[in-house]
Amino acid sequence: MPPQRAVATEIGTMSMRAARSRLVATAIAILAVSVCACTQSSGADTWPARPVRLIVPYAAGSGIDLAARLYAPLLAERWQRSVVVDNRPGGDGTAGVQAFVGGND
Q: Which DSSP letter does residue 93 get?
């Protein structure tokens, strides 16, 4: 493979990673906003009834993980429940999605 092609492929991969990270960060932000909006509606006293597990589909130390760890104490204070950040890296987020789908709430 010519050097120019290798550099272009690497740049394309970095762009995809950046786009995926932005997509996941946006999804977490939308989820956090929607959950906060739901707590202000009727029935807010009954949810969450137990500790909350915030699933992050990336490894600890990533940008998404840091954002989740910054939001966790704020959510815990608001909901009066403990919020645990659960990292589930692997499979380009598939492991995290499976953990979310398998949740009990």
A: G
47-71 pLDDT tens trace: 788 888 888 888 898 888 899 999 9
Q: Is 64 exposed, middle or buried (0-12, 13-18, 19+ CB in 10 A)?
A: buried
Residue pair 65/85 in contact (Cβ under 8 Å)? The answer is yes
Give dist(CA 32, CA 91) in Å, integer: 24
First to last CA, the chain: 50
Cα separation, 1 vs 21, in Å, equals 28
- How many structural domains is the chain composed of? 1
Domain containing 37 equals: 3-101
The DSSP string of 14-55 is HHHHHHHHHHHHHHHHHHHHHHHHHHTSTTTTTS--S-EEEE
pTM of the model: 0.55
